[in-house]
Each structure stands twice: as C-alpha cells, then as structure tokens.
Give the backbone structure.
Amino acid sequence: MAFFSKLKDRLFKSSSKLDEGLEAIVEDGGAVEPGEPEREPEHPQEPEPQPEPEPQPVPRREPEPEREPEPAPVPEPEPEREPEQPPEVPEPGPQQPPEQPQPTDPEPVTPPPGRPQPSDPAPGPQPVEIPGDAPDELPPQESRGMLGRLFGRREAKPVMRRTLDDDMLESLEELLIAADMGVDTALRVTSNMAEGRLGRKLSVEEIKRLLAAEIARVLEPVARPLPLYPKRPQVVLVVGVNGSGKTTTIGKLASQFRAAGKKVVIAAGDTFRAAAVEQLQVWGERAGVPVLTAPEGSDPASLAFDAMTKAQAEGADLLLIDTAGRLQNRQDLMEELAKIVRVIRKKDPEAPHNTLLVLDATTGQNALTQVEVFRKIADVSGLVMTKLDGTAKGGVLVALADRFGLPIHAIGVGEQIDDLAPFDPEEFAAALTGLERAA
Ligand SMILES: Nc1nc2c(ncn2[C@@H]2O[C@H](COP(=O)(O)OP(=O)(O)OP(=O)(O)O)[C@@H](O)[C@H]2O)c(=O)[nH]1
C-alpha cells in the first residue's frame, strides 16, 4: 500500500475528528450555493504527477544535510465521473463565449474594498497562496466548455460555503485545540490561514487545503532525518518515559539501518527491568542485530561502556543505547543518564552523537511536558513520535514543532518492524486534516 494512504488510514482518528468538526463549522452559518462549480482538489505542494516510490527506510534519507529526494507526489485523482445531468439553467448574467477555454488557475485575487487586508507585508509568515483559492471568483459555470472540463473543473454541484469571519476563526481555533495542537499553535495556524482571506467564502475542502498548507509550513523546518556522521561507532542514546516506544523504535531503527548496510549493536541499558531487556532481545533477533545485556540491577553505565568497547572492536557503524524511563525519580534518572554519557565519553569524547527522545503521540499535550523535562536531564537532539496510528491526538506533533523546533526524525505508525517512517510534513499535514490525495 502506498505510504501516504497507509498513513492516512492510520491517522484516521485525527483526520476524521477534524473532518467532522470542519463540516459542522461550515454548516453552522454556511450556505449552499447552487450551481457553483467545485474545483478539483488541487494540492499546493503537488507538482507533476509521478509514480509513487516505495517508502524508503529512514536511514536512507542520509547523509545530512542532503535531503532525501522528496517523495514523488501522488498522482492527482482522476476526475470523478458524475452521472450525466440535464443541463442546468444558467444564472442570469453576462455569458461568455462557450468555446473560450478557461484558465486552469484563477486570476490573482483582488480583495474587494473594505475587506480587511494587511496594509504592508508584515515580517514572518505570509499567507500561502493556494491554487484554486478564490472560489467566489471562479468563472461562471455555464462558460465551461470541453477544455474547462479537461483542465479540471467538475460539473456544477452544490457546495456549502461559509464566510471566513471572526466567529468562524474562533471555531477553527477551538477545533485545532481539540485536536491537541495547543492554544498557541492553533492560533498561529488559523491566523496565518486567515491572513488576506477574511470575508471569503470557503468550503470544507478549501479550508482543509489552507490548514494543511499552514501546518506543513510549521512542520517543514523540523522534518530532518537522523543525521549520520562518519564517526564509528555513532552512538545514539535513546531516552523517553516507560512505554513511550523506545524499545520498539530501537528495533525498527536497527532493522532499517541494517537493511541499509550498516553494522548495528544494541545495548539494553534499562538493566532494572528484566522484561524490558527481554523485549529488546526479541527486537534484536527480529532485526538481526546483537543485543548486549547485563545482569538485572547492574550499572547501566557499565553496560554502556562494555557496549561501546564491543562496538568499537567490531567496527560497528551504530550503537543504539536503550535507557530507563522512570520519571518518578527525576534526579536518579538524570544521574543515571549523566553517568552513561560520562562513561562513553571516555571512549569517544563526542559521544553520544544523538540523543533521541521517543514520545508517545497518544499522550497528547503531555508530550510537551516530556520534552521540557528530558531537555533538562539529557541533551536531546531530536525526536521520534510513536503511535501516530489510531490516535486522535496527532496534532500534538505540530505543537511540538512550533514550540521547540527540535528535529523530528521519524514517526511510528504501528507495532511492526517496518512501521517507522521518515517524517514528511506535507503528507502528515494532509493526513491530519483529512485532505484527500490520490492513493
Ligand atoms: N500502535 C503502535 N504501538 C506502538 C508503536 N510503538 C510502540 N508501540 C507499542 O507500545 C508499547 C510500548 O512500547 P515499548 O517499545 O516497549 O516502549 P518502551 O518505551 O521501551 O517501554 P519500557 O520498556 O517500558 O521502557 C508496545 O506494546 C509497543 O508495541 C507505534 O508506533 N504504534
């Protein structure tokens, strides 16, 4: 299954929550405009249709700063065939010559007088121009000819639209807050979306496109694959609260790096929980990667040192160190992590090269607090967000990006070994808003 549709299916709870909310908002105060043509769903970030590539393993997006070639955009959907309709009675008004081809893109929008506009472009985010962003300025339906249809206009169909005003903005803010985007981020996204568009009539689909574009813009700067350094072994310390998905993520990462030809060693640093060690061993077997363990209750720093020695001796490319996630005693955890770092620095003064914080998306706004805490006790260099499948709280990732600007290296979308995906802001924003894209 194409990755986008998989992600979208799995983020269904988030997107359906937004979907339902948006429909309710537009219905509340909106009006059906008979005979108004609805545009084909156009996607601002989708250029030429190309075949979709297989999802790449996370490590293949390296080396930094080279970005993985953008995933090929998903082809535009075929225009839906609609049953033949009797010709509709045209609205009274000036007719255009029927054979005149219609432009694919609308003319630049000139705001009507009195419509609130920023007098000069303020520094900071500018409104994203969305193709097809002027529904009220589309050419009259009756002027569409064969070419107009070929160029992506649908048959006329009643569409519910609501005028974008302060009330509607407030409802949109509330909806985004309910989707766990957080107050500040929700306000920023909606006000950017509204900039230059107040007074315009928008359909649900158009709002989704605008929101998705704004969300993608917040996410873009943090979408960074795990940087790989020429250093051997590259030491990746994996931190996070119990149950956030550290073990699973280490297993998935190990498997992907190994598939990419890297030699990987795992250290089971949560020596206080036998179950955690066993689980890591299972993942090591699955990934075909050795897991270094130590007797229950032994010093994790000593295990980390042994693992470092082994990884160096074996010429491993990557050493992934699992750690405990007890936050109940923050001081102990902080000392434990600090000791691991001190000890591995005896072997390599630059280690750890990455400190990955694993966050569970289902905890919603708690993820923000966890970032704050772990940034104090460890030098967090990047994030992995797990369990984005089947949660209605995916919006928290946007809040994290907006608040901390820490790189988001990958996302977990399931419990299987290949359910770790590179983080693609546009795909994520589309999946989150329920924006239709071709599968
Ligand atoms: N649905 C889903 N479940 C996940 C994902 N990642 C991890 N899990 C599940 O979350 C649970 C906890 O994952 P672990 O990897 O054990 O979490 P941990 O942080 O290592 O937990 P401790 O070992 O208790 O410290 C397991 O049941 C995993 O299968 C994901 O992306 N999606």
Q: What stands out?
A: The pocket of guanosine-5'-triphosphate is lined by residues 240, 242-248, 270, 276, 279, 325, 386-387, 389, 412-415, 419 (CB under 6 Å). The domain at 1-32+160-220 is CATH 1.20.120.140 (Four Helix Bundle (Hemerythrin (Met), subunit A)).
